[in-house]
Amino acid sequence: MNALTNRAKQVDRRKMNFLERLYLVAIFKGMMITFSHIFKKKPTINYPEKTRPFSPVFRGLHILNRDEEGRENCTACGLCAVACPAEAITMEAAERQPDEENLYREEKYAAKYEINMLRCIFCGLCEEACPKDAIYLSETFAPSDYQRKQFIYKKEELLIPHPIEQPEEYKKALGNRVKRETAN
Amino acid sequence: MLLAIDMALIIEKLVLIVIVVMASLVIAMYTTFAERKVAAILQDRRGPNRAGPFGLLQPMADGLKLFFKEEIIPNFSSKALFIIGPGLAMLTAIMTGAVVPWGDKVHFFDRDIALQIADVNVGILYVFAVVSMGVYGIMIGGWASNNKYSLMGALRAASQIISYELAMGISLIALLMVTGTLSLKEMVLDQQSGYWNIVYQPLGFLIFLICAFAECNRTPFDLAEAENELVGGYHVEYSSMKLGFYLFAEYINMFISSVIMATLFFGGYDIPFLNEANYDQNWMALFGVMMLMAKVVGFIFLFMWVRWTIPRFRYDQLMHLGWRVLIPLALFNMLLTGALVLLKQNGWHF
């Protein structure tokens, strides 16, 4: 049978000679190897001062999007809640009043929108299901906290900052998001 | 005054005792930190560097953590023995520092103060005796835990220590033939005027070094507390500060072993290639202490370097090494040294 690689070494079954039985020579060689590791570069990074870069499709914390004029995209259709395998999303819909035209895009909007971060498995199915390009999983981690109820994120914490009223925060929250061509 | 000792001597000794004990404890504390840093550096990572600048407050954090943990004393064990065990280990660890010459004489308040708590003329024998008593700390800890695995671990540790004490003692006999005295202070004085004892006793030093590894329960001889195999050995039932005492006593033992080896074989507080009599006495004493500490740091680094390089011995390999390799080697060393000393006395002819 042909060997797959040529890395297999023939087993050496000779008895050890005197120097080898001393073990001191082998120990000394081992110690030299360990010593040389002191001067090698360490791959540790000082988190949280430095972080490793993530890929642009990394699924992190959720963000609810707004369009260019600052109106919320989400119409509380419930497709993300149905798609979520962990049942982490809940919402309540409300009707848009005539004087709230600049706040919401369509007549129906989400009055209450909550995601339970402890249930969420960051699978991204809600992002795939949304027809309005409203929910998006960004690149940040979910931070730690002391109480369970503080992990239920409300709509205000999830919304992206207003692009016209808070342009710097908006730009920062966008990060290096890959702009997708939407149907509507 | 009923005693014929003056008050100044008592105060001087008390101050020395407090300084030596405090220094041993602080150095042992930072040895635990150094262990983690050296282990990390040898393993291509950084050690603890978050607690305080460069992680220097890490041992404080560890000590505080151990204090705040819950003390668990298992049922049906002898409560007195359970508490005495770690106390005995710590006591014998610190007691050995009493006969070590930490430096030369300093001159304060019109007195010559020797930097040594007790200059007994059986110096190294005292150290040996106290280290042998350290076995009791481990045995009592293993027995009082009321746990058969602890007992096995303690038995292994005790048998390892007494086996390697023999080879250590025999290599000390060879050293005694060369130096002619047991007092540690006289040995350092001899090494100041002559060559360091490592030149006269290289094989003896090697044997002593290996036995020191075994006495401190350090890898490759750390089967008693093998974290991967016996879970904890004789200190598995201990928690909070009692466990802290056991671990601490091991580091103090390591520190004292390094000091003893530096004093016996490498000249103690002697500064090489420098004639101390030419300079100011107090400054020379200070430099001598710093030189001793530098040698000790070198030895402690050696302890840690070996720990993170070599795998652990199996129990029968350990016993084989102690009885059937080191003792014959130490006996051979002793006979050879004896022959050479006799030859030298006879003027190098038969």
Unreliable residue runs of chain A: none
The tally of structural domains of chain B comes to 1
**Cα distance spanning the termini of chain A:** 62 Å
What is the count of helical runs of chain B? 11
Terminal CA distance of chain B reads 59 Å
- Morphology call of chain A: elongated
- The stretches of 5 or more residues of chain B where confidence is low (pLDDT under 50) are none
Structural class of chain A: alpha+beta
Tell me the strand order in the biggest sheet of chain A.
2-3-5
Report the principal-axis shape of chain B: globular
- Oligomeric state of shown chains: heterodimer
Helix content class of chain A: 10-25%
Q: Which sheet architecture does the biggest sheet of chain A show? A: 3 strands, antiparallel
Sum this structure up briefly.
Chain A is of the alpha+beta class and 184 residues long. Chain A has 6 helices and 5 strands; from the N terminus they run H-H-E-H-E-E-H-E-E-H-H. Chain A has helices at 18-22, 24-36, 79-83, 125-129, 155-158, 167-174, and strands at 62-64, 89-95, 108-116, 135-137, 152-153.
Output the keywords:
heterodimer; A: 184 residues; alpha+beta; Alpha-Beta Plaits; 3-stranded antiparallel β-sheet; two-stranded antiparallel sheet; B: 350 residues; mainly alpha; two-stranded antiparallel ribbon; 11 helices; 2% strand
Report on this structure.
- The complex is a heterodimer of chains A (184) and B (350).
- By secondary structure, chain A is α+β, with helices and mostly antiparallel strands.
- Chain A contains six helices and five strands.
- Chain A has a domain at 62-174: Alpha-Beta Plaits.
- Chain A has helices spanning 18-22, 24-36, 79-83, 125-129, 155-158, 167-174, and strands at residues 62-64, 89-95, 108-116, 135-137, 152-153.
- Chain A is elongated, with a radius of gyration of 28 Å.
- The model of chain A has no long low-confidence stretch (mean pLDDT 84).
- Chain B has 350 residues and is mostly helical.
- Chain B has one domain.
- Chain B has helices at 7-42, 58-68, 79-95, 123-144, 148-179, 184-193, 197-200, 202-215, 240-265, 281-307, 315-345; strands spanning 105-108, 111-114.
- Chain B has a two-stranded antiparallel sheet with strand order 1-2.
- The relative contact order of chain B is 0.14.
- The mean pLDDT of chain B is 86.
